[in-house]
Amino acid sequence: MSAVIITKDNFQQEVINSDKPVLLDFWAPWCGPCKMVSPIIDEIADEVFTLKVGKINVDEQQELAAEFKVMSIPTLAVVKGGVVVKKSVGAKSKADILDLVAE
Fold it and tell me: Any idea where the Thioredoxin domain is (predicted)?
């Protein structure tokens, strides 16, 4: 399953009401490190079926970025049952991201 574009309009349905943990990627098109992480996030979305993966463009979704207190990008957040359980800032390897989402 590919990554879902998350907006304030679908946040409740896709993240809060998700029956799976959700990996959120906060990014922006002008962010170099975000461009390095993006293909890794897409791979994880296609490979890890126990997880939902969402991408949030911080330029377009400033309210969500503020709600998650995103100060730097890329920021990755793992949400379970509507609660942020892990958060990571900066570019990460695929192995590090998989460690972040591991139970």
Answer: 1-103
